[in-house]
């Protein structure tokens, strides 16, 4: 199939979402990416709680790598959505309050008497990014919990709570530590108890559950070559979970069907339309008039996006372990195909 024909199929414009997924348009788009070594990854789309499209691409370009439909991807900071949900389950059960101060758990942290659980969730705490030390990523090798905690203390805060929104990995490490204190068990065991078992997820696991059959990260330089990524035991509760795209969509669909949290609790997580881009564990993804809620995740070689449109009951999960097209552009194009919008084929560099 020529690129002109692909372009013709993809550039048809329209206005309304169709109840039928045009699988051929999606396949044409993914074929373009795959045939040009544009990436390695998987896409799953759910509509009304059922998977209507699933496609993996690029894996056959990897040398001596075994994989199947159950091979998992590192989902990076999409993990934060899970951590936030687990915090809200404590809130829902009356075991924690959003206005509880960080000092109730970790008074050693600077400004902890002012920082609330809500601040930690919505990136308004003023805390920084423990993973960057002396302008470099230092969590490539295994670090102790004590070293990470000391780095958070050392970095302190850069602004007062509620003064502004600045994405904070340190805040979510502390939320994970609070979860472990409240549940009196390790994070991976909480995930199993509250998420994977109730939802019957077969390919969804925190790093201390020792997930197997998981993709490594790759970079394209003439060919796809494996690269070293961060040490995932250093980012538990922040970016350590591995999953398939299908299990991710089961998870987020279940969330918006109120199978994990009550409706009123989920509303607390969502950003306020017109006022916030970041909520409390959920971010807003706006594509023209189509509003999705979810989270993104990015480490050195793996990237993920998990979003849900409550109006149309559509979930999109995308994971890549070899990226040449920025994930935000790829997702924008997928949404354009879904809603019959015009777009340009991405340039592959």
Give an overview in words.
The protein has 349 residues and is an alpha+beta fold. The chain has a single domain (20-61, 70-338), classed as 3-Layer(aba) Sandwich (Beta-lactamase). Helix content is 32%, strand content 19%. The chain is built from 10 helices and 13 strands. A hairpin with a 2-residue loop joins strand 4 and strand 5 (136-137). Helix 1 runs antiparallel to helix 2 (23-35) and helix 3 (79-92) crosses helix 6. The chain is globular and about 55 Å long. It starts with a helix and ends in an 11-residue tail after the last helix. The model is unreliable at 1-16 (pLDDT under 50). Keywords: Hydrolase, Signal. This is Class A beta-lactamase-related serine hydrolase. Residues 1-18 form the signal peptide. It holds the Pfam family Beta-lactamase.
Cα shape: globular
Strand order of the largest sheet: 2-1-13-12-11-10
The termini sit apart by 22 Å
CATH topology: Beta-lactamase
* Mean pLDDT across all amino acids: 93
The CATH class name reads Alpha Beta
Rg measurement, Å: 20 Å
The count of helical stretches stands at: 10
* Structural class estimated from helices and strands: alpha+beta
GO molecular function: hydrolase activity
Organism: Flavobacterium cupreum
Protein name: Class A beta-lactamase-related serine hydrolase
Keywords: Hydrolase, Signal
Key features of this structure:
single chain; 349 residues; alpha+beta; Beta-lactamase; six-stranded antiparallel β-sheet; three-stranded antiparallel β-sheet; hydrolase activity; Beta-lactam-related
């Amino acid at each position: 199939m020529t690129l002109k024909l692909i372009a013709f199929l993809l550039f048809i414009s329209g206005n309304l979402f169709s109840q039928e997924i045009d699988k051929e348009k999606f396949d044409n788009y993914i074929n373009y990416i795959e045939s040009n070594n544009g990436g390695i990854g998987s896409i799953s789309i759910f509509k009304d709680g059922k998977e209507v499209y699933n496609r993996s691409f690029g894996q056959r370009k990897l040398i001596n790598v075994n994989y199947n439909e159950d091979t998992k991807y590192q989902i990076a900071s999409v993990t934060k959505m899970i951590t936030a949900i687990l915090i809200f389950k404590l809130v829902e059960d009356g075991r924690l309050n959003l206005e509880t101060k960080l000092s109730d758990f970790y008074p050693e942290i600077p400004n902890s008497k002012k920082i609330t659980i809500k601040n930690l969730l919505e990136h308004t705490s003023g805390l920084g990014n423990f993973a960057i030390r002396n302008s470099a990523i230092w969590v490539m090798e295994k670090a102790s919990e004590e070293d990470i905690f000391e780095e958070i203390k050392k970095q302190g805060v850069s602004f007062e709570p509620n003064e502004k929104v600045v994405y904070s990995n340190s805040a979510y490490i502390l939320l994970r530590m609070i979860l472990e204190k409240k549940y009196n068990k390790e994070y991976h065991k909480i995930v199993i108890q509250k998420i994977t078992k109730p939802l019957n997820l077969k390919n969804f696991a925190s790093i201390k559950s020792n997930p197997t059959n998981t993709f490594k990260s790759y970079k394209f330089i003439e060919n796809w070559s494996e690269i070293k990524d961060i040490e995932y035991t250093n980012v538990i509760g922040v970016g350590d979970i591995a999953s398939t795209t299908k299990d991710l969509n089961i998870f987020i669909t279940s969330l918006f069907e109120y199978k994990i949290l009550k409706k009123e609790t989920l509303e607390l997580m969502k950003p306020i339309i017109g006022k916030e881009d970041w909520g409390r564990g959920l971010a807003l993804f706006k594509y023209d008039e189509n509003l999705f809620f979810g989270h993104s995740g990015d480490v050195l070689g793996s990237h993920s996006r998990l979003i849900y449109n409550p109006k149309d009951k559509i979930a999109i999960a995308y994971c890549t372990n070899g990226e040449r097209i920025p994930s935000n552009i790829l997702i924008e194009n997928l949404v354009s195909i879904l809603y019959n919008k015009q777009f340009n084929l991405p340039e592959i560099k």
